[in-house]
Amino acid sequence: MIRKESLLAFDMLSRRNKDRERYGDRVPPGQKVVEDWPVLTYGGTPKLETKDWNLRIIGDVEEETSLNWEQFTSLPTAKVHCDIHCVTSWSRMDQDFEGVVVPELMKHIQLKPGAAAVMVHSYGGYTTNLLLSDFIRDNNLLAYKHGDGPLPAEHGGPCRLLVPHLYFWKSAKWVRGLEFLPGDRPGFWEQYGYHIRGDPWNEERYS
Predict the structure, then answer these.
(1) Which of 11, 115, 135, 200 makes a 20 to 30 Å CA pair with 20?
(2) Which CATH superfamily is domain 34-202 in?
(3) Residue 11's pLDDT is what?
(4) Separation in Å, CA 194 to CA 13, 121, 178, 191
């Protein structure tokens, strides 16, 4: 008799093979493609109006500052078409986001010479860390639109970070601050065993 677990494993393998036939090397190892967008969040969804939103820039910068929603959304915008990959093994393909590309934001921030990493702070207390080499990339956004409309609150609206080349826990929801650091240090999930960087193609899921 074929065990139920064996059938489930075979079905999962079959799905992943079909995903790779369709998308090729766009699907990282160990991932399966989904059509829906799962909502995975530590804690509840903050109730946040744009009139109360601010982005604080602190740490190893020449001048700490903050941007309100009007100031932030007056910056030039860009659209990014990408795939997103969750550490829990789902991938969602061909997603469209819009917002302020990170290199554009960095034109308004003067880092101190020793800055090497950034801690992203979220409303609700979540944090995640990135090396500057992973943060300052042309495909990274502070996104406030998805598809044809505003980014939904459950997916990080009014504004989330988008870092499509790393697992999606690095794309922090409800961003409220960027703290530039002289060295990398773990954020929330990284302190609980998640990988310090999180590259999907190397399956950097856990430490």
Answers:
(1) 135
(2) Oxidoreductase, molybdopterin-binding domain (3.90.420.10)
(3) 55
(4) 25, 17, 20, 7
